[in-house]
User: Fold these one by one.
Assistant:
Number 1:
Amino acid sequence: MKDLAIQVEHLGKQYRLGAGGQQHNTLRDAISAGVRSMLRRDSGTGGRRNAFWALSDASFEIERGESVGIIGLNGAGKSTLLKILSRIVEPTTGVARIAGRVGAMLEVGTGFHSELTGRENVYLYGSILGMSKREMDAKFDAIVAFSGITDLIDTPVKRYSSGMYVRLAFAVAAHLQPEILLIDEVLSVGDLPFQRKCMDFAKSMQTGNATILFVSHNMFSIKTMCRRVIYLKQGQVQFDGPTDEGIRHYEDDCSLSTLPWAGRDHDAWPLIIKDCVITDDDDRAKKVFDHGERMKLRLRFETRRPVGKPNFIVAFVRSDGVACCNFSSEVDGAVLDGLDGDGVIELVTPPLKLVAELYTVHVLVREPGFQKVLCAQIGGTFHVRHDTFDTHFGVFHESARWSWDGAGTTPGRSPDAGEPLLPLADALQLAPSGGLE
Amino acid sequence: MNPTPAARAPGTLIEIRPRKGVFDLGLDELWRYRELLLFLVWRELKIRYKQAAIGVGWAILQPVIAVLIFTAIFGNFARMPSDGVPYPVFAFAALLPWTYFAEAFRRGGTGLVDDADLIRKIYFPRLIIPVAMVTAPLVDFLLSFCVLLVMMAWYGVAPTMNIVFLPLFMLVAMALALAVALWLGPLNVRFRDIKHTLPFIIQIWMYASPVVYPVSIVPERWRFLYSLNPMVGVIEGFRWALLGRANPDFAVMGIGALLILLALAGGVVHFKKMERFFADVI
């Protein structure tokens, strides 16, 4: 018999938007909406029309010790699923059974009260997470040692640096010793050190045979963490199986979709990319590029309203979220004036000196001077291939000029120092989270 | 056939499904989380007087100042009758349960929103919050109760044997505060207007209760209707047990207690019904 940790059957969650829904934040709104709907009888049906299923009929089973990634576009129901499993929201239909102590990494530090001392917060937060006082008494010294803030444990946490705050919260959560770990990288608004801590912790849990359910937009972390993924699409389980295949489905659906941060008002965009073709210099369609090859991108766009002097931007974002480089028509001096109707824009990149990895092409159109976003879409993905240069080498690799002085050597030039550095060198400034730390 | 997840230890198998009906209340869970209740009460006490120079002293000072003001205005200027006991003692005996009730009512009503972060991100029985908010002010009550005993000794007023019934009256005040919190708390989650109306409700309620005046000045024909306010019974009960004055109408109090029980039961059902939407709308 299988040793299941999580069993989900026909799980669904329905939300209501707008008219009949939960949207009135003041009594006055609710009353005026009520009066309006009385005057106009027809709007009473609005509630039903605006009901939508954030998650519908999801069924799957996860065995003890498995790590499963949950992937999907924004609004596909990933976070809803996790919120149901962590019991924050109640499902509308279906059942989920969970065997074992659940730790949800969506909440690290939310139970902390800034006026209380570190010691007091350890107890408070621990009890919120479901630990008993006895358990905490037994673990207290270990928690403090793990967090490394022994000296300040009796100081109010409002005097802590944010790093210390996170360390302490993490120490408590880690000592909860969950058997099932729910991680939502999308929800956790932590900074980079926090997210790293989260991942390190998850990996250490993995070796301890914990079951992990992991929501992320970051295919890199998904690949390193999970051998199995569940791909959600519009609230439904679209695929459940090996990670590589799941990510392929996801990436196919991603192409030309709206970038997550760009919100949902893409209907209001004056311009939209209808097609993005990635080829090499000789017009051969390609997904895998050799280090040093040039890439050609053909963007077919459609304007809904005339657009004056748009700035087309193509960015390559590595699978771990590092923005590696940007090409901008405005910066490169290509002035497009008064676009109207449909058209095609093409660019050829300099030789790609990026390290071997998976990259996503982001296509953005902005108003002149990098102002308002007119359109923000995902153009597709590609791999860069090289035997040696991977992320350990940084973001890009380019040969340097070497010279030396000393016994037994003759001063000289390194053989490969031909072309000057390409705009890729700017990548280091463009990458806020830096692959070089 | 689907094998169900094997439970590791008793109680670790959780089943998540839509609530079955209005009476699917899951109150047993409240008991399992009793330690959290204690920690939340303790947190309330800790943070209330943090970074205040005289700290817990405020719990004593607040009612004392209120009594001074009431004595000056109602006792001296308005010459309010006080059932033959010194006005400060008369007012303080009423202020004790009233201050508790007002505080429990206020915090119970707004507690959910104050802990919005927790509700959005962590699961625990939500009922814990109003229960904790109604429990925490009991500690302030005990502190000011000691002050009252000192004041009574100063004025030479001896408490009666009926003092043993005080916990009963406090229980009524607690149940009432909890019932009101269970109704208003979830409403406050949806409509923040509640928070702004609370101070007015509390103020009106105070003047509808015999805090600064004796029941004897209420016209006889309004007396029954007036006594339906359960706080009338609680305050009269305090004066009766401590000062030997006033004679609470136990029959009316019985009706009041019955109403509170009904409101409490309805409040729990209402709360559990609204609870499902907390994380979505808070």
Note: Chain B touches chain A at residues 2-8, 12-19, 33, 35-36, 39, 42-43, 46-47, 50-51, 117-124, 190-193, 276-277, 279-281 (CB under 8 Å).
Number 2:
Amino acid sequence: MTSGPALVSILRQGDVLVASVHTALDDSQMLRFQHDLVRQIGEHRARGVIIDVAALDVIDSFASRTLQSIADISRLRGAATVIVGIQPDVAFAMVRLGMGIGELPTALDLEEGMVHLARVRDRARR
Amino acid sequence: MTPSAASDEPQLEAQESADIAGLVPLLQRIVTARVGQHPAAEDIIQETLARVLAAEDRIEPGMLEPYAITTVRNVIASMWRKDDVAARNQHRMHDPSESVEAAELLVASEEQLAMTEALARLTDRERQVLLAHEVSGLATQVLADEVGSTAGAVAAQLKRTRARLRVEYVLALEGTEPPTDRCRAVLLALSSADRRRQRELDSARHLLECDVCARLSEPLLDRAPERPDEVRVPIGADPDIVSARQAARELAVRAGFVGADLTMLATAVSEVARNIVRFAESGEVSIELLARPRAGIRVIARDTGPGISDIDRALQDGFSTYDGLGLGLPGARRLMDEFEVASAPGKGTTVSMTKWFEKKG
Amino acid sequence: MDTHSFGEVPPEDQEASSDDQLLPQLVAHLREHRGTLRDDWASRIHDSHLLEAMTPQEMVTETTSVYDNYVGVLETGSVEALQHYARDLSERIIPRGVETHEVVGIVLLLRDVLARSLFEKYQSDFGLLNRVLNAYEPAANRIANTVAVSFVDERERVIRQQQDAIRELSTPVLPVRERLLILPIIGVLDGERAKQLTEQLLRGIRTHRAKVVVIDITGAPDVDETVANHLVQTVDASRLMGASVIITGLSPTIAQTLVTIGVDLSKMNTIGDLQGGLEEAERLLGYTVTRKEVMDGS
């Protein structure tokens, strides 16, 4: 991404990637984010991905769809994904918009996201 | 001017100039009190009226009087100063090239110092919330959730803090402390454009009596009324989608929207703006505050693109010709209270949608 | 015997006859006769059946304060103190149901009582009386105006506050235990209330870090299509925030409405009654409920 304050940060914690979106992203930035994250999943052979979207004040159809794509692609690459930090008003607008939020895996916050990933892994091991 | 020419003036314009003309007796009293029967008295009044007229668009109707009082005082003061400077400089040659750059640099660093000082004079809590909002870009709702308050309350607090910051900034810039207990309160009331408080404090009288406040109030009055009721955002590329929805959110906060309504509005604006970028390449989103029949906000998205040949189909879920979910128009419709699309193939599309602040009934 | 004869004016009044001396002189008069004038006023209030919500003791205190503030405004020309007092007074008496006409009424009575007293004092000199009343009336009107406006402002504020409180009360989000919320829906729902309810629930999920929400609609007599849609959206939005929703108290009629609008009931976690819903919630939260395990042990 261009210079200036980072719009997104991706940190590695063991085999989990924690991606935090820091500010509103436009469509091209969103796609760039998807690209970077998917690449890093491969590079680090991540088994889990947490995307923190607490800073997003709008998640419109394009953003929803991109988040859904990331979740789908990373699952195919062997990493479970969970979206955390969706704000109450944003959640409301997303369902009003009519996003078939389908299989989008979500959790309240980072901590719950970790719990969620651990549970998914437990289930996989059984 | 002949009377017949005047009577041809449209009603509205006559009304506006009547407001300004109403200031004349007030200005005459002030000028007479200060310069007596000075030959320049009439010029001062004319100059003041001209300045008020020029600034009229920036001033809210009820603020005309304090603005005029401040202006007339400044006109008088600058007249004295000019006389004074002219007297002192008669023997000197004026050299305009004299290190203008250095002076500008000095001004810039002074302004920065003043801002730092002004920030320091806020309470810790005021400063934290302001910086979190302005610098870190946290939404009022997020801030409200953190402290268990409402977005509306936080927005109101931010407004007060900004008004206070402006006051502290001009004070710091001047390097003065206000001479009376009343000054800060009056300046704050002017800075926040709070007319009720201004009346309570009898600000107009205070401006007449207090030199410091009269001087300081000018930048404050200039700033406060920057409140257009309509914002137009040209749409040409991806980043404009974000600008459009942010502009809509800001304007809607002023109409009193809070919480999910704000987010729904911003989301709907995002969808119609994206339609322009994807289908028409360029266009415009205009966002307008409504007062009648109820408080609300109207968004009009116009483009000169290829148009939509089958609007009914475009409003069905799942219809889309670009790689999206086909949610654009039907989704925006669900988020708003009123929604209309007009389109002519080959000429372009206009989407108008409204969200009411007060619901019917 | 009356020693005054017409036309004879006490020397200090003659001296004070320039107009800007009038108000101070008038104020001095009102101060001097404070006790009797105030009593006079209080009895007029009583006769007019105003402020009957107040005790006699309160009447004495408040009328004295209003009187002093009133005279204070006449003296200084500044309504600021009165404004604060009027707002403060309004705040105290509005909860008791004091109406706008009563507040305006008592101020007009006071204006009248004082005007009469001035009339009595100055009636011997008609010219002076006229000038006194000319000075008094605009100030008195301004006071009446100020008090009325302050009262109405305050009343509006209180009403707004009460409306907010009622809205809050009508949609209580109850934290039952850690990470578990119950939202009992009681009374008629319309689209607007359903929306507020959802917003409040979503905030509640965040504040209480809820994992499970039980929405009990036993107390909702009627659920139309709009509200049913809302219910579905509430379930979805809660899930986006990481919370599961259990719906209890779903009547056959409401279930039918949901099916009609195309809701797949198998995807919603619905349980007959609140008790069962709470047990399911505990299970989801990972607590074991012995009784249920025994029953489930098939």
Note: The CA atoms of residues 34 and 119 of chain A lie 25 Å apart.
Number 3:
Amino acid sequence: MVPESLDSLRKVFERNPLRIDEAREAGQKVVGHYCLYSPMEMAVAAGAIPVSLCGTRHDSVSRAEEVLPRTLCPLIKSSFGFALLNSCHYLASSDLVVADTTCDGKKKMYELLGRMKEMHILQLPQNQDPETAGPYWEDQFERLRGKMRQKFQVPMTDEDLRRAIKLLNEERRALKNLYDLSKNPRPPYTGLELLEIGFKTSFLPSKKEAVEYLEALYQDGLEMIEEGRSPVAGGAMRLILTGVPLGMGSHKVLKLAEDLGAVVVVSDNCTGYKKTALFMDEEAPPLAEMAARYLKLPCAVMSPNPGRYERLRELAGEFKADGVIDLVWQGCQPFATEAYSVRDFVQKELGLPYLMLETDYSESDLAPLTLRLEAFLSR
Amino acid sequence: MFIAALDVGSVATKAILWAGREAGMVASSLVPSAWRPRAAAREALKRLRAARPDIRPGLLALTGYGRRLLGDEPTAEDDFGLGQIRSLSFNEISALARGLNLAAPELRLILDVGGQDSKALAIDENGRLLDFMLNDKCAAGAGAFIDGLCQSFDLDHQGFDALAGRGRPVPLSSMCAVFAQTELVAQIAKGVSRADLAAGIMASLAARLKAQCGRIFTQSPVALTGGLSRLPVFVDYLAKSLGVPVIVPPQAPYLAALGAALMAWEQDSPPIDRQF
């Protein structure tokens, strides 16, 4: 049985596009974001609604392929297809789109997207050296603040930023509490439910509201644990899902793994647990603190990317994982290449079974994916 | 108890009658799947019955991509001619691992080149999977690649293999089943012989498989199964490419069916029986 809080989140999400419209009519602005490196604190400090725009559905891919190379990753194609079809309410509602030069495919796509939407591009450094990349990245944030001040005619003082940091910290804390429930031997939520929750709360017009939902979900989860109720069968193989981000519509691998009897106890990706790593010092100078935290995000676009391995080690221990699935979108060179080292690390250092799955958003490879997952889970 | 096992592959459907660890396989049959898995399964079982009319299996073990099409419900008389029989279904990767372990317990590495995929498996002394890798979302590096080319050469697999044995491999770059045709046309236009082209195709397929499996194959030797294991010239090219001995185990086409039969037997027997 689904807890009441999840049910009510689902209901409010159905009406969410309408609620975004109402907020806009009342004068609020909407700022769209793609990768996790683009700081949502800025939008919040500007009094705007931050939303994530990464495409998670297959239906816009073929339209995008009329413009983009077919070999690009499905996330980029899906995102761009939404723009061409004008079929994403959140993109259409965005008064400004903030994105960063994460990977080659994305940054070239943004050039094309810039013909249709007003964009501000952050030049993301390719390594995480605090001495060289840190100040550069902070300057990028300062320029973004300048852009938003001018665009939205708001002061965006350091105090505004601090308030935004506090609010987003609350959201991170609530998310982490919820995700950490899966450390329990019988998690109260499946990995798919947690994906859905993270996805749906991220589009709500108010972060305060998102925090309330997350806290209610956490309470319901606690109650389920106390009462010994769980949607997860005892003895289910506990998986870490690492690699590329996913959302509702691009969740097939997660769903398949859980349909086959495993449970994804933690999603080590930008749409999962990685968000909780951005927790910030609320007293520090805000811009520098933000730049430092965001730069540390362990994405495969960073070279080198040592944080990914440290994190996997921590998660494997904390969540008592039995195996690691590394999800790679077809055409994602950074994650596909890094998979070699991740495999070595997981098998040799963590001593856990590892399975890399490369796929796209389509349903065409469900049978071969099932075959691989069944064999992997049967060990 | 006798167990009938069916491995419904994309190209061939394999069936065996199995009489336990000691007696092993007592009959086998292999028929083309021809995109009609149910009909192929029926035909393969019919041949088993013809070979051993005296034996009535008590359990049906299913594996291969077509196992789902055959369903989990007890199989009806008119379908498979086995009477009401219970069926158990197994993943073909695990089945192959167990089957090889039973047939050739000393081998730990398997390369299975089937119609639609190629699998590299590393197993332990009990036939349990340690690691595996499958080709990605296309048929390059699988039997379908050779299938298409056999048609272009107007040869069957054995004929194509023999032709390759008479040639010196020309370097080919494309492993895409579609683009390879284009590249071959260009080579023919340059006057390259059919034998050299066929040899080039075998060599490039072997190189592709090495690239795919190199990480799993850290020791030797490697057992080769699947349809391409029946092509001796290809086996030579593969051994050269991998740099290790390649062994085609006995009963190579039937190993997944054998593994499925073994797992069905284990699942069906109370643990105490298994000691004997």
Note: Chain A touches chain B at residues 330, 343, 347, 353-354, 358-360, 364-365, 367-368, 371-372, 374-376, 378-379 (CB under 8 Å).
